[in-house]
Design a protein that fits this description.
The structure holds 2 protein chains of 2 kinds.
Chain A lengths: L5 H10 L6 H27 L14 H25 L9 H21 L26 H32 L5 H10 L6 H34 L11 H28 L7 H32 L2 H12 L3 H13 L7 H5 L1 H28 L14 H24 L5 H6 L12
Helix pairs in contact in A: 2-14, 3-4, 3-7, 3-8, 3-13, 4-5, 4-14, 5-6, 5-7, 7-8, 8-9, 8-13, 9-10, 9-11, 10-11, 11-13
Chain B lengths: L6 E6 L2 H13 L5 E4 L5 H7 L6 H26 L12 H27 L20 E6 L5 H11 L3 E5 L2
Antiparallel strand pairs in B: 1-3, 1-4, 2-3
Helix pairs in contact in B: 1-2, 1-5, 3-4
Classes of the chains: A mainly alpha, B alpha+beta.
Chain lengths: 440, 171
């Protein structure tokens, strides 16, 4: 096996952004059509009103909010890998953190679509922003929905800044080898980076501080999103467990999505020497941990509901397990807390097929977790005469498909324009006894 | 360090040999050194001895401004357009902590990035010296600005340290 050196890292990673083949564009048609379908469905919804969605009394939050929470959760793992693992000097993060950060940025953008989609009058979305107006009206800063706006907006801006800053040296590498208008494009984005010792010194310092800022964001943003539910008095929502429950779930689903993206990516780009079995195994080990957290959270919720002897709380959790949505509930329990236990076995952690299958099942399970939390609680609150059912309508499902298309399209396009593995950090972490280059 | 002046440029293959080169040059009293490398190197940073980056002051300032802004915005807007809810405080600090925290992180993060750009003197519209693509690839460039009478000393020091190529650059 050829040893990794500076020359090889440059060659292998820059090869991933070579001119795409016809096959690449054919594959892109799938998310593209999903996006068209989703956009058309949303356009129809704006014209006809929110009644075309399945949302109705008593379930006033349906799969739009499910998808919002799902995508915010996916976004968290990217920051965990790039920022938190950077601070604890986990070297294995080097090959996977760039793709995880890219996933974070587009996941948070996808999540941000849903509060807008969910509005009855989306053209008034800016009313949630604090701007002076002639009626002197301001947002309610005591509302979790306003906290959401600030948290998600901060997370989006900081994630973008963190990603872009880390990309600057790599963009300079591409700039020096690009031709024609691409050279100008990368030249502008590289900001004239040369790689002087002074630039690296300030870069390293800034990267450390940004990582330190991104770390509490991972915990705070999904805690704020969880308080959309916990601050209400709805049974099954009004619990102090929600913040750690949601953050744990976010990391769980995000890591699974990283594996779902990494496995095909390393195959398509031939990055087996960079994203190795060890990297995938390390991700799988963390998933075991987060899966146990999820299992413990489910047990705690049910135990507290029983221990409280609160009849409404007990009824809610009984309804979840054996009521109208029992299939969704048991998918959640099995896929999130039992299936990941397979990663206790090394064979399962190192086999790409099992990694891919289990990661997809975890994401399905996490989607259904949000569905169970939102729909069963809203549909089965305090007053039995007000209980009701919810089924997502074709419009909602089309918009959901469009969101997946949006995410995949952006991700696939980005990794063909910018390197999905960090060139400069891979070089930085090559063993010092290896000779840097034997050629140019 | 300015690369507009005349000096000696050495091309190295390895961060450890470049570090040796830096040390040798400093021992000779030639301290106006610029290293161009394709990745960060703590060994070279140590050898140059440039000290701690000023970016941290931008971070601190930004974070403090953000925190003040977060509390200021939420408290001011609550006072100026109060929503009176059955005896609950109009200015309620616990929820406002969330807004202040997010603004602290946002302003601190953006200030950090701005600080990095300012300290690293980016964006550079024109390079001081034509960028050599080898320095973003697989080679490390070590440039020492010095007077003409020190050229040969510097060249010898770099060759001794293991430079692949050494050349005199005049401006």
């Amino acid at each position: 096996m050829e040893t990794l050196d500076y020359v090889r890292v440059n060659r292998d990673v820059l090869r991933t952004i070579e001119r795409p083949t016809k096959r690449y564009f054919l594959w892109l048609l799938i998310p593209f059509f999903a996006l068209i379908i989703g956009f058309s469905a949303w356009f129809y919804q704006v014209q006809m009103g929110l009644g075309v969605a399945g949302i109705s009394h008593p379930v006033m939050w349906g799969i739009y909010v499910v998808n919002f929470v799902f995508w915010v959760g996916i976004a968290h793992s990217g920051t965990l890998i790039s920022a938190i693992l950077f601070l604890v000097r986990a070297r294995w993060r080097t090959a996977v953190y760039r793709a995880a950060e890219i996933m974070t940025l587009f996941a948070i953008m996808t999540a941000g679509l849903f509060p807008l989609i969910h509005l009855g009058r989306p053209w008034y979305f800016y009313w949630i922003l604090p701007y002076p107006n002639q009626r002197w009206q301001w947002p309610n800063f005591k509302s979790p929905l306003t906290w959401d706006v600030f948290a998600i907006m901060t997370y989006l801006i900081i994630s973008f800044t963190f990603l872009y800053m880390g990309l600057i040296p790599d963009i300079a590498t591409i700039r020096d080898r690009a031709k024609g208008s691409w050279r100008k494009f990368y030249g502008i984005l590289s900001l004239g980076w040369q790689g002087t010792d002074e630039q690296w010194r300030h870069f390293s310092s800034a990267y450390l501080f940004l990582a330190a800022f991104a770390t509490p964001l991972v915990v705070s943003v999904h805690s704020v999103v969880s308080w959309d539910f916990a601050m209400a008095v709805v049974p099954g929502w009004h619990s102090t467990i929600f913040a750690p429950y949601f953050v744990g779930g976010a990391i769980h689903s995000g890591l699974a999505m990283v594996i779902t993206l990494m496995v095909p990516m390393r195959r398509i780009f031939g990055l087996y020497d960079y994203i190795t079995e060890k990297h995938l195994e390390s991700l799988a080990k963390v998933i075991v941990f987060t899966g146990l957290i999820m299992g413990y959270s489910y047990l705690t919720e049910h135990f507290i509901a029983w221990y409280s002897a609160n009849p409404v709380e007990m009824e809610t959790f009984k309804y979840r397990a054996i009521g109208d949505y029992w299939p969704e509930f048991w998918i959640m329990i099995v896929f999130n807390s039992l299936v990941p236990l397979a990663f206790f076995f090394k064979k399962m952690r190192t086999n790409v097929v099992s990694l891919l299958v289990i990661s997809i099942l975890i994401n399905v399970g996490m989607w259904f977790e949000r569905f169970v939390i939102i729909v069963t609680s809203l549909g089965h609150e305090f007053m039995p005469h007000a209980w009701g059912l919810y089924r997502p309508s074709p419009i909602e499902l089309s918009i959901m498909a469009g969101a997946f298309g949006f995410f995949l399209l952006l991700f696939a396009a980005f990794i063909k324009i910018f390197p999905a593995v960090s060139i400069c950090e891979m070089k930085e972490h090559l063993p010092l006894h290896i000779e840097v280059s034997k050629g140019k | 360090m300015s690369m507009r002046s005349s000096g000696v440029l050495g091309i190295f293959n390895h961060p450890m040999t470049a570090k040796k080169g830096v040390k040798r040059l400093r021992d000779l009293g030639l301290a106006e050194i610029t290293v161009l490398s394709p990745c960060a190197s703590h060994e070279i940073e140590e050898a140059i001895g440039a000290g701690v980056s000023r970016v941290r002051w931008f971070t601190l300032t930004g974070a403090i401004i953000g925190g003040i802004f977060g509390f200021g915005l939420s408290i001011y807007t609550s006072v100026v357009w109060s929503q009176i809810v059955s005896g609950k405080p109009v200015v309620s600090i616990p929820p406002f902590i969330i807004i202040a925290f997010e603004m602290t992180v946002l302003f601190g993060g953006l200030a950090t990035f701005l600080g990095m750009l300012l300290c690293a003197r980016l964006p550079q519209l024109r390079f001081e010296r034509t960028a050599d693509e080898r320095f973003t690839g697989s080679k490390i460039g070590l440039f020492v600005a010095c007077a003409a009478e020190n050229f040969s000393k510097a060249q010898e020091a770099m060759r001794d340290a293991g430079a692949e190529e050494v050349s005199v650059e005049t401006n």
